[in-house]
Design brief:
Maltoporin, Chain A; about 800 residues; mainly beta; single chain; 9 helices; globular
Length: about 800
Amino acid sequence: MMARRMIRMIGLMLGGSMLPGIALAQEAAPQATAANDFADEIIVTAQKREQSLQDVPIVVTVVNAQLLQDAGIRDIKDLTVLTPGLTVVSTANETQSTALIRGVGTAGGNVGLESSVGVVIDGVYRPRTGVALGDLGETDRIEVLKGPQGTLFGKNTSAGVINIVTAKPGFTPYVRGEATVGNYGEVGGSVSVGGPIVANRLAASLFAVHRKRDGFYDVVTGKGPRTRDDDADRRFWSLRGQLYFTNEAGFDARLIGDITRRDENCCVGVQLVNGPTTGIVNALAGAGNGVLSPADPDRRLAFSNRDTTQKIRDGGLSLEMNYDLGDTILTSITAWRDWRWVTGSDSDYSGADILYRQADGGTMNRFRQFSQELRATGSTGRLDYTVGAFYAHELLDSRVAQLYGSDFQPFLSLLFSGGTNPAFLKPILDLAAPGTGSRDVYKQTGDTFALFTNNSLKITDALELTVGLRYTIDRKKAVADYDATDGGALCDAGQATGSAAIIGALCNPFFNSNFIGLTNSQKRTEKALSGTAKLAYRFSPELMTYASYSRGYKSGGFNLDRVAFPYAAGNANSLQPVLDTRFPGEFVDSFELGFKSTLADRRVFLNAAAFYQDFTDYQLNAFNGFFFSVFPVPEVTSKGIDADILWRPSRSFTLQGGLTYADTRYSEQNRALLSLTPSTARLPGERLNLAPLWSTSLSATHELPLGGGLVLRSNANMRYSSSYNAGSDLNPLKLQKSYAVINARIGIGDEDKRWGVELWANNLTDKLYMQNAFDAPFQSGSINAFLGAPRTYGVTLRAGF
């Protein structure tokens, strides 16, 4: 009841505050307005130099600091509400978060695959999308660059880039703070301080945040040992400190250090479809403790007898130095990052104790990365140029432990006896003692070297040609040590039965005795050429058109998972480990034709582009219920349109929105390859999973003076997605229908922004939608899903001087 009242109140206040803004806009329209009076110039660094958005021949969606605050955006996942064509989803844990642009991204939890959408924070590339998740803090702007950006941003940007620019320290002292309370027990706040240390020479800033919230799922824990009855909670703190130095000689330097700690629980899945094993699971777990039957995702009720603890430790340092020589600026960015994640999980996503991963360090990932970029940016005559070099060294440590639970034996006995005999395979399955199982260790090192240049030549005052080229050498080495604490007895005993079904279950890669004691070392070196050519023509100061070609590159690697040949009687390769798990780099050729326009005395920015993208050796990461398989799909195509609009009819009212139409499909020519396995047989000719045909966003912000120095500020935003399949195998049962998510925020404060009080609500209509759907492990026919966030609401207080 209280929630409904709050939602109604926000809706009524928004309606009252938005309508006057529209009326004021209509009244102001006939008045003459000086250039730049309403819509300020939007500055971006999409081409590694400061330029007006309207001069950049790239599809870019820009969200500035004020809109980030108005829309309540705190991390990359929230950004989707303001960026059409961008999707960010989380799967089995936060580290398996996937960013997709125009339907293209890298899904799943295989750390051997790198991202298709690069995330860059203050010029520093983050090695995986999940590694970049966290509170954004005080941010100057976020630029979402769509399409391949391999020339200037390098490898692993074949679908696009999320470029985050945090606020730089200044020489005006300030103290700002924010405190938030909300439903689901949300409590949190942040504080930032900054100002000069040495006048006009050295400035500093410090940002600190702490937030916690109960989980979005209720959890039935059954017979345990798990006791926590919710999941997908929040509990983290973060610090970011900066020093900024400048002098009259044209030199400036910016040192940034950050540290984050998270101690949370994620992720459980809800039952989407009940398969034939439902009765067995419920019988083992006890009435009402196994899985929900009949399935009802709306209840957000999950079943997990094992802990889903995840602990993340993240930190890094970066130093950017710039030296202005007049016509040329020399830039150096040096960075080091260390990210570590330890997790536990209920691997069968049920209340039965079948399979699990203990949060004892047996399952963890750690990324350590050093990077160095050097570049020179300048102008001479009609030529703007950028030349540079890049080097990165990455150390990846990964451990995976898959352990047997106490119900493993009776579950498989009931499964193979048709539900009649819980001791059917007891003599064999007793060899799999609870708490034993596979324990694998992966170590990967990578070195990337690149040289690049990007040059724009003004052929005439109206015609400009841009040509860029990047040459990359990518070297990787991986060592996998496979082991098992059960000695492999389970698989060996299963083979003695001669039953193909039993052997297939007891010798799946996690239990396959042929892996025990095996060490597999692999190396690969890849050389890649990426680049771009763009031709832009400016018909007038208000209208630019452009045509572009870009070639992007995503590095190849190793499938860091167990891979084995399937069981086949009489075949010498039967159940043998696959020792060559390399997969090639992914390339994309992209063509765009677009325009950028400034209309109505700079009250309107309207930009649009048509695109066609052809991906070769697309890196498909398919999950079959047990493990991930990596397929280099010969061809994937994406074609469509992108459009963005910014309308600011008055200083008090802003409307920003956009749409993306992206038809992203597997080519029919892939049929012979993809038809070989059930998990990929449906793919040829179909749209990729998590790839809606249409996505739109719309945000309206209004500021209404109330007199007495008070201002009422309101924002409403909406994200719409057409239907998409949420499963990598495109099972029709995993279809997510079209939906819209609506958020709103309204606040009152003084006109100098010294204080403010805001009411907010996200997902106002409490729309239920799937982020990802997957086959339940060991439960053929059962399907689980990870859901998007439910309706949340609360109050935020702000103060500063």
